Amino acid sequence: MDTAVNESLSISYNLEQFLIVLSVSLSIATLSKTVPILRRIPYTLLLVIVGMALAFVDVKLINLSPELIMEIFLPPLLFEAAWNLQWRNLKENWFPIILFATLGVVICVVGIAFPLSYWGGMELAIAFLAAAALSATDPVSVIALFKELGASKKLNTLMEGESLFNDGVAVVVFLILVGIPLGTSTFDLSTTLARFVTVIGIGVGCGLLIGFSLSLLTQRFDLPFVEQSLTLVSAYGAYILAENLGGSGVIGVVVVGMVLGNYGSRIGMNPRTRLIVSIFWEFVAFFVNSIIFLLIGDQIGLSSLSDHLNLILIAIAAVVVTRLVSVFGLSLISNKVSDQISSTHITLQEQTVLWWGGLRGSVAIAVALSVPQAIAERQAIIDIVFGVVLFTLLVQGLTTQFVLKGLDLIGDQPQRLEYAELVSRQIALRRVLAEIQKSDEFPDIDPERLRYKQELVQGQLQSVTDKLKLLLQEYPLLQEVANKKFDQTVLDIEAETYADLIRMGRLEENIMPLLVTLEGENVVE
């Protein structure tokens, strides 16, 4: 009886704590969108600041464990990012992303470990563990800033693509290194490489298996909420399956998210379902980020950090320098071979933003907290990671928008986004109006209501059209965007017509749209 009562009290207490965390985090996130002075600060950084304030007055909300981050919070965050990462953009930028996520991690680990050992006096094996944790980038707030300010798709893809794959590689490197100070394993290059490839391969295999299986399954029915639920199951399922098979759960989630977002949602979901699922994952990402960044700030023990201040300062300097070396050095390599295997050329301005925007966050903290208790320097590693995370979030995170503006990387992107939204609304309203005007399709609707609805849509359409005209007058360069969208729309119509003819059996194979050829001839002329 007493056990049941204790369990009931424990559940009640944990629920109360969770509701407090949720209330505080969502309140801060709301204020960041409504209070003008707070809009300049990304809400994730504001949550860290509030969490630090709570920690300063010794208010502990929930203990942040590695299991809580890696198994509960991380899968949905990774899946949401991978779901929205378009394969077309990734294919255009795959080479630098792979370089940053692999060689970049190696440069980071080596470049941080040796300064910590040489100047900080840490045992080299321990320094490598701290470096492995710090090699995981987590630029959530920077990517949110990119979207808010309208930074280029290329910059967003490079930052987000690197982060997704970088996290998986960093976790694998840590798991390989953690056995060395414990004496359970030794470093052997060939064995380590074989294990690395195996762990990554299992993660990729699990992601592909679940992703393509669900893609084929959702072709057989049209049940939006079931399909939405299946994506949630796939995120956690890929992580758990890969981990249980000895692979990388992080890589598994990233792969399944990319497969479902780029393939499964196209062949197995109608447009309405895709929209429902995308909105659901946008909410989940907002919900999880709102909690995790508050807890990051709340877990920071300022007195403990001061005990290892010299190590933290060394680590901060090493993180900044190694990030600079990896971004500028690997970008140079990428640009050299871009003509042969990749169309991406990373400018010096973009390299600067990639360098300064390489923040550390939840993944680095989760890895640090997972250091075994048997390692005596565990607290030092945790303090180093928390200190660096704090610096990158509050210093680099808060100044990235000034770097973007100073390097003129925003340009007319906000206006382009506004133009694209207005054009989309114009197209949608015209289609709605066309359907309403087919009065024979709505025989049971009162004519007066049809007339009212028609006038309402016409008014909205006129308002959108007027805004488009004003935008084009204010920003004449958008006319080029309008011309490109028109050309693309015409090409899409021709290509879709050929596809329909193939499905009807009136055309044996797909043919090149004629307008593509004509466009090419015009360019030549």
From TrEMBL:
Compartment(s) where it occurs, according to its Swiss-Prot or TrEMBL record: Cell membrane
TM spans (from-to): 12-31, 43-62, 97-118, 124-146, 167-187, 193-217, 238-263, 275-297, 309-333, 353-372, 384-404
Key words, A-Z: Antiport, Cell membrane, Ion transport, Membrane, Sodium, Sodium transport, Transmembrane, Transmembrane helix, Transport
Pfam families in alphabetical order: Na_H_Exchanger
Membrane topology (UniProt): Multi-pass membrane protein
Primary localization class, coarse: membrane
Domain annotation Cation/H+ exchanger transmembrane: ranges: 27-405
Domain of life: Bacteria
Its job: Na(+)/H(+) antiporter that extrudes sodium in exchange for external protons.
Family: Belongs to the monovalent cation:proton antiporter 1 (CPA1) transporter (TC 2.A.36) family.
Protein's recorded name: Na+/H+ antiporter
Natural source organism: Synechocystis salina LEGE 00031
